[in-house]
Amino acid sequence: MKHNHVEAFKLMQYADKLGNVEILWNSRDGVTPFGITSRAGREMFHINWQQDRYVPDHIPNVGDRIQQAYRQLAKKFHPDAPGGGNPGQFRVLVAAKELIEKAVQR
Question: Which fold has domain 1-67?
Answer without folding.
Answer: Rubrerythrin, domain 2 (2.20.28)
